[in-house]
Amino acid sequence: MNNLILNTGVQKFISENISTDIMSVLLKKPPFEGVSQKELAGQIEAKKKASEKLPLWFSASNIYYPNKLNIEQTSSEETARYKAQLVEGNTLLDLTGGFGVDSYFFAEKVGSVLHCEINSELSDIAQHNFKVLGQNNIECRPEDGLSFLKNSNQKFDWIYLDPSRRNSKKEKVFLLNDCLPNVPENLSLLFKRTIHILVKTSPLLDLKKGGEELEYVKEIHVVAVNNEVKELLFILEYGYKEKVMVKTVNLKSSQKELFSFALEEESEITMDYYEPTTYLYEPNAAILKSGGFKSLAKAYGLKKLHPHSHLYSSDDLVDFPGRRFQIEQKLAYSKKSIKTLNVSKANITTRNFPISVAELRKKHKIKDGGNTYLFFTKSSKDELLVLQCEKIKD
Fold it and tell me: What percent of the chain clears pLDDT 70, i.e. is strictly above it?
């Protein structure tokens, strides 16, 4: 950590060059003694990435940024705030502290946070920024979190882990047994120091697979931001043996879309499938990831179109965690039927359909955009179907 970067002139230069081409910064003669052009470019790149993802950090003065990869890998403020709502008590250990965004928001909910980070420079950066942001109940330790636990008898109300999804060969991985640290392999140690564990995983991880790799899973949270799944969160409680609750959330600027179901009950629900009627419903990305398709139909009293389409219909309009449409036309799919729609511009969605969106646009000469929505899917009788719809505003 180069403290000269925190000098007033350097900080002013970084702020004034947020929109400057990075190559031009790198090629200029160094304007500050003791601060290289590479360091300046790195601070500018990282701060630019923080502008939307971390507005609290971006708007504060004298924030020191790590490399842009650390910024890319850290939680966003929205998801960190959500995680902080899941914990309580007096003490929390952030075993894989990183840049410290999660620790910052945990510290607003618990009495004290211990931030462990094996990269000593990143630990120093996090500690500096916590002081700048006025979060004074976080202690930073520049050491491996697991080593700390092995050498300490300290107990915590919660332990939080965000394992690195790159293995020792720097290859991308997502199974928990392949991540670093290996959470399943170290569960016995973790449960000697706490009753409650919160684990953040890759959004690519299968919920059931994650549950099989872990023990005492109480809740699984599927977190999406503006309909893009960002995180899977597993809450473990020592000795828990009841049903696993899956809680989905889609964080939008104006609201939260929430839906919960019991994981074990999803497979027990029997379901009939129906032709679409007046209204069409498309679940948000968090629900699609969760797999709670039959539970969703049961909870909202909706008719599911097909076992694998994940579209729903009803005669009367209902509130729904996703997009809602009024069906204007229902047609069996063919080149001739598409021509009768007389549509040259539309928003196209495919669900359980053998032709891709790009192929459909090319084949039927339909441009993207406009107020018309076309859903290409399968009916309950396994026939190819086209639904022309108008979107219902929230």
Answer: 98
Token pair of 16, please? 């004034």
Q: Which CA distances in Å does 352 have to 33, 82, 325?
A: 61, 32, 18
pLDDT at 70: 87
Q: Residue 332: what pLDDT?
A: 95
∠ Cα 260 165 211 (to 5°): 35
Q: Are the C-beta atoms of residues 99 and 125 closer than 8 Å to each other?
A: yes
pLDDT digits over 107-137, tens only?
A: 999 999 999 999 999 999 999 999 999 999 9
Cα separation of 327 and 298, whole Å?
21
Tell me if the pTM is above 0.70: yes
Alpha-carbon distance of 388 to 365, in angstroms, equals: 16
Q: How far apart are the first and last CA of the chain?
A: 47
CA-atom Rg of the chain in angstroms: 25
CB-neighbour burial class of residue 305 (10 A; exposed 0-12, middle 13-18, buried 19+) = buried
Condensed to tens digits (0 to 9), the pLDDT of residues 153-209 reads 999 999 999 988 766 666 677 678 777 888 999 999 999 999 999 999 989 999 998
DSSP letter, residue 166: B
- Do 277 and 303 meet the contact criterion of CB atoms below 8 Å apart? yes
The edge-to-edge listing of strands for the beta sheet with 158-161 is 138-141, 112-116, 91-94, 158-161, 196-201, 228-237, 217-225, 245-251, 256-262
Residue 144's nearest CA partner among 94, 185, 89, 214 is 94
**Residue 225 carries which side chain, given as an amino acid letter?**
V
Give the residue ranges of the chain where pLDDT is below 70: 166-171, 174
- 320 burial class (0-12, 13-18, 19+ CB within 10 angstroms)? buried
Q: What is residue 94's three-state secondary structure?
A: strand
Structure tokens belonging to residue 367: 């441009």
Which H or E run includes 161? Answer: strand 158-161
Reported as half-sphere exposure (CB side, CA atoms, 13 A), residue 266 has a value of 19
Which phi and psi (to 5°) does residue 217 adopt? -70, 125
DSSP state of 3: G
pLDDT at site 179: 77
